[in-house]
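Standup notes
- HV: blocked on the assembly model, inputs below
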Amino acid sequence: MYPIARLCGIGVLLGLLAAVLLKNMLMGDSVDFHRHKALLIGIDGVQYEQLKQVIDAGKAPNIAQFHLGMSYTGGIVDTSTRQPTLSGPGWATILTGTWANRHKVVSNNSGLHNKSDSIFKLISLSAPTRHTASIVSWNPINDNFVDDISAGFIELGVKCGGDDQCATDRTVQELRTGNFDFIFVHLDQPDGAGHENGFGSRYQDAITRTDHQIGQILAALSKRKQNNKGEDWLVVLTTDHGRRLPDGYDHGEQSRSEKTAFIGLDKPPNAELTQPIADPVDPGLEGLYGFASEADIVPTILVHLGINTDFERHAIDGVPVIGHIGVRQLTATLNRADRTVSLRWRVTEGSKQPLRIYRSGQLIAKLTDSSSQYVDSDLPPSIAELNYTVVLNDVPVSRLVYEAQIKR
Ligand SMILES: [Zn+2]
């Protein structure tokens, strides 16, 4: 009996092994994305050069551990993506991967409701077992995303009313005992210090204090990772806007310093973050638009969580800064005279796949050559709003074209 039972046991084991191998062969690199999680730490109003000074002085040791790359916010000045370098629009872009022409949070009015699909919604829709939290020091962020809270896409929404230690402690608590797949935490102190004192030691001290709180959060995360070996966390660090030169008191306009943000990752970034385009389509602001953008954060988190969005329904303007890159520098221009839309893009990563172009969810072209432009001359009679999506290496990047904006 014993040897036979043992043989049966081995047979079952071999069978299971074969099944697992077959599944891996069929699915390619099989990764258990359900143990992939993400933490997005947002710091309000951190000007990039000031941050670098604090890091270089050894006074932001936690932030210094991240792969940091410059990015821009506020959209592109002479296009429909332009938005003020204010916190409302800035966080809405960070949390949706879109600009104000889609998310509609055009100011700091806390009564504005985000109209794009948020990272919370995209994660929740991908699997009912995934849980999300938004823990904010500046309350209007969760007011702008109140529809996500009432729909349950944000399962835990915490407003700390300007108390960064409250946001830190709650995040630490949720990392210790909670079961969230995505946590967004917002810390406000540097912005407040900037408005009050401008650039100087008080502003830089505020960055140091925030770095200390980030250290508390990262310590809780590393403890969690020790206790949950199978979990694979991506940590992203960012800010919503820079500050106006020379004194740093204010922000909201379209200067290079106000539009400069940064993205920090605890995993190696791809070329979108590490190799800015030297000759961007729009050469303004000393080449700032050649860098990554704040719209890149949502697609980055989605890549880590293994979520392939249905781009026909959920358009995203950004490009992921980990994994494969899609097209970069995508522009879509409506030419009213001949009723065509010109699409242009850059490809900086080799690809053997066809590049596919969709207009409002419908496939209109499949390009197998290395072209970097396409003219759509088959427009519908009425163009209120058209969404174009270019898919390369399975990465979709979208642009919105609409007639009203062109008339301006
Ligand atoms: Zn501010």
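- HV (later): unblocked. Confidence is low (pLDDT under 50) at residues 1-8, 19-28. The chain has two domains: 33-305, 328-407.
- Next: hand off to the docking folks.
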